[in-house]
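Q: My labmate handed me this sequence with no annotations at all. I'd like to see what the chain might look like in three dimensions before we decide whether it's worth expressing. Could you predict it?
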Amino acid sequence: MNYELRKIQDADVKGKIVFLRADLDVPIENSKVADDTRLNAWFVTLEYLVREKAQIIIAGHLGRPKPISNFKFQISNSEKFSLEPVVKWICKKINSKPQVIKLKDFNGWKLAENVFILENLRFYKEEEGNDEEFSKKLAGLAQIYVNDAFASSHRAHASTFGITKFLPSFAGLRLQEEVSVLSKILENPKRPLTVIIGGAKIETKLPLVEKMHHFADYVLVGGEIAENTKELLKVSHEKITGQKSALIVADSTQNSKDITVKSAENFVQIAQSSNTIVWNGPMGLFEEKENEKGTKILAQALSKSKADRIVGGGDTVSYLKKAKLLDKFDFVSMGGGAMLEFLTGVKLPGLEALQG
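A: Here is what I predict for the chain of 356 residues:
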């Protein structure tokens, strides 16, 4: 997929009001940001805009709150999904104190003289519905739109797609890097190429596993998706004609919360013979120590591999960071589903909207 994106470097942002769509969907524990990998990734774009003396309105989502109905500009009282922990993280980073404000119809915070942030956009039903009026309301806050949220660019939502119809739109610095690195893998990977898919989200990952068969040399499937779709995966693989990958689906432990040690070791053996490895999704419920073994075996082996190693997906990245192995990988994508969709050649709406 060859994307020629309009770049933020080519936009005249000096003194302009910029709507910055960022990746704000991070794990929160005890009302604090538990993993700031995604936040640090797009911060370079915020710093660029500050240097250019733009006024920046940051926006994004957190989790899957139950949205309020029908375009009433109120804010849910759901503290669980409030962006307040993210606001505090940013303020600590820039040494400021947040101030609750209202930007036209939207609630949010003032973080600095020229930096603002909106409350969780998914509190509004119209965000995921890509509502045109809602998109216009968002666009009415700014003069220029910048998307630096690769992890959300596979969804045609108001803040990633609809808004681009009403504002000059550009790709942020991190988004450009994601597209550049993943394009090289898609177009000319060093082979053998192994794709490892784990975790849950079966309804979104299953079709992607099937599409990987014409791209990868090996497709290794573990985690909940392996446990619940083993036979379905094998049947769909058998139906594929022409050149296709070798499919290996892991066996699960007796409690179905991890893959077996033998399966993990089989995955490692294949990975060791590969020259490019893409990994998305843990092998089990790694949060529970007794169900971490499969993910740990794989992570430690891949950290020592000489292959080109790309990892993506929030849970996988969080695990590797806690295990102090994240810096051993060649590239850490901020997208999970977005990364897999990109590598299967699916058109991502958020990127299509930024085509030059």
